Input
Amino acid sequence: MMTSTASLGARLFSPKNQSTQVGWTIRKGHDFPAETLRQLETWGMTLSVIQENGRRSTRGQLKYLDPAFATKSFKYTTPTLTIQPEHLRDTSLLASHGFHFFVDPTEIIEQTTQLQELRRAAGITTRPTIVWEPKAYSCVPENLQAFVEAMRVVNVFSPNHIELAHIMGKKVPPTSNEKFFEDLCAPFFMPQESGSTPQGVLVIRAGDQGCFVKSRNEQRWLPAYYASHDHVEATTCVSKVVDTTGAGNAFLGALTIGLLMSSDDAIFAASAGNVAASFVVEQVGVPTLSSSEDGKDLWNDEEVFARFQAYRARMT
Output
């Protein structure tokens, strides 16, 4: 079960004969655009729509502060209609194999506990894959230990590089390198007083640079599909980047599906995330879905898995 653009990322890696396996719970205010819901319905996902009569839909304002779209600010312009585990009660989405959470460290512990309790009450005994994206306001140095502890209840913790640098009280250098990302990850993999070490994966999303994947046993830098000129070896001939809005969420949706597809291969899953993000940045808004002559999904006139295979070949 996904939220926001993460559902799109998951849908990109779920062919139409599997599209109903991607779920999205939506709390829909009285002003929710009808054309938006119609478009979501064409993607063939399982939508759980909760009508909130008398309330406005969640809206926000995103401002880019420089011509390169590198610096931005965001604020909600309406009260938020958040999704809680309770909203999954008595729905098919409660039995989902993977979940994307966008919450702070305290909430991830509370909500994963609530989710497991609801699943047990419904007779669902398996543990789902949990991918956690932190709320930006919580990414401050005084919360470092809370983040370290919360990472133990999830499969993947995925802040962006700016958020993780804020947690560590560090400034982001003009040109980040692998050593910088290694240092950011270090506190999350140190043995704790109990003697335990984290079993989860830390995936740092670094925008147009790509992502850094770190677990207890491996680490790897994966350049973006449309990488910046600092990674010339991975660039395509002509960049098609138009608007990066939503790319990070799409990355996380595809990452979640990738984990389920590959029995928790984090490198495989993060590669899927980079490819999903590449489709989202090619236009303002969402990519266009159509069908090939043999009935396969085409997003922006291209098969997702063909692009994925090409990206994976570049990485070998």
Observations:
- The mean pLDDT is 92.
- The two ends are 31 Å apart (CA to CA).
- The first strand starts at residue 23 and ends at 29.
